Amino acid sequence: MRAWVNGRILDDPEGPAVAVSDHGLTVGDGVFEAVKAVRGRPFALGRHLERLASSAAGLGLSAPNLDEVRRAVGEVLRGRSDPLNRIRITYTAGPAPLGSGRGDGRPTLIVVAAPLAEAAESTRVSTVPWPRNERGALAGLKTTSYGENVVMLAHAKARGATEAVMANIAGHLCEGTGSNVFYVVDGELRTPTLKSGCLAGVTRGLVLEWYGGREVDEPIDVVRQASEVFLASTTRDVQPVSAWDDVELPVPGPTTKAAQEAWHEREATMLEDLG
Ligand SMILES: Cc1ncc(COP(=O)(O)O)c(C=O)c1O
User: Fold this and answer.
1) Which of 2, 58, 66, 134 sits at 20 to 30 Å (Cα–Cα) from 82?
2) Whose CA is nearest to atom 14 of ligand 1?
3) Distances (CA, A) of 65 to 2, 48, 69, 70, 103
């Protein structure tokens, strides 16, 4: 692991790095991005930086300096020969009083790179009993307030799945804790709209651009009629789902396979050389 914090590479990435009063640490007042790097080249970095900026604006943080973030990404990736790395960019409100009110501390910017394992060829998902609040103050923002996701994912893992899928308050299919969901009904590829409260996943957006699909909100039970399902995310790319709770699914189904092929054809065009 290689870590860059507020302008410098840490000698010990596991050692102390931020103030004990950092508002990201104490109350989850921060935003983040996870970016994949293939042999040292970040994938779709521009789109991730745009989303970092819009999450920060949505949370009311000052705008991150995206040139600085880009430089930090270059620094943590320098000399890394791993086939895949996960870059984690975290931007918080910085040192603050210990309650929910913000201080006027300088924001904290942390960029870390660590090796990432290749995603499994397929996976199981489990529905969780808790909804995503599509009307909540943080809906659609990628904030560090991910405690709900931690509980949901643990619930799914205890049931042999690697991802938890949730409905929203309206009872519509929403997303996974770290992925967007695509499914096929009557031969048509569908995915929830952004109004469902799901994150505007970079992978989701590229699948829609490169392969297609209809954005629609439907009751979560629609998956009972699905002939195929896949997850889309930075760490999974297009990953076929082999079982949703007790429903077994073919992997990869024909639509999923075609979406994967479209992905592999275009993927390299989104890799950036940071020099
Ligand atoms: C809640 C949530 N939904 C969807 C995604 C997928 O987004 P992306 O494709 O940008 O990784 C993520 C990413 O981690 C996420 O945290």
Assistant:
1) 66
2) 178
3) 20, 13, 6, 9, 19
- The reply to whether ligand 1 has any atom less than 6 angstroms from the CB of 168 is no
For the cut 90, the answer to whether the pLDDT of residue 128 exceeds it is yes
Give the domain extent around 78.
2-115
Residue 266: predicted pLDDT: 98
Asked if residue 191 has its Cβ within 6 Å of ligand 1, the reply is no
Same domain, 253 and 148: yes
Residue where the block lists tokens 């392969």 = 211
Quickly tell me which residue has 């050389």 as its tokens.
273
Cβ proximity of 103 and 20 under 8 Å: no
Asked if pLDDT for residue 52 goes beyond 80, the answer is yes
Predicted local distance difference test score (pLDDT) of residue 81? 80
Question: From atom 2 of ligand 1, which residue's Cα is the shortest distance away?
Answer: 178
Measure the CA–CA gap between 153 and 29, rounded to whole angstroms: 21
The model's pTM is 0.97
pLDDT band at 177 (very low <50, low <70, confident <90, very high): very high
The verdict on the CB of residue 140 being under 6 Å from ligand 1 is no
CB count within 10 Å of CB 210 equals 17
Tell me, yes or no, whether 72 lies in a domain: yes
Residue whose CA lies nearest to ligand 1 atom number 7: 201
Contact 192, 173 (CB under 8 A): yes
State whether residue 74 is helix, strand or coil.
Answer: helix
Residue 48's pLDDT is what? Answer: 98
- Residue 216 beta carbon below 6 angstroms from any ligand 1 atom: no
CATH of the domain at 136: 3.20.10.10
